[in-house]
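pasting for ref
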Amino acid sequence: MSLQAVYDVLGALADAGLVRRIQPAGHVARYEIRVGDNHHHTVCRLCGTIADVDCAVGAAPCLTASDDNGFRLDEAEVIYWGLCPSCAREALEA
């Protein structure tokens, strides 16, 4: 099976709503099977570790825009950036 075939299948699965594609700025795309909710992600600036973050309050989109410009919003994509516990420890020791 070619790498292109894998990407084609992942794209089809994402289009069907069976997987979710995430791609933080400066990172390659990743796919996750956690779909059907509107959770967010944390990304470590040093090692690139990505973890899920549940919405603290409310249902999708979990955020309220000050002006929706007439859009009917149904999803918000938030990425929190920082240092994972391991990289934060290493940074303190350096």
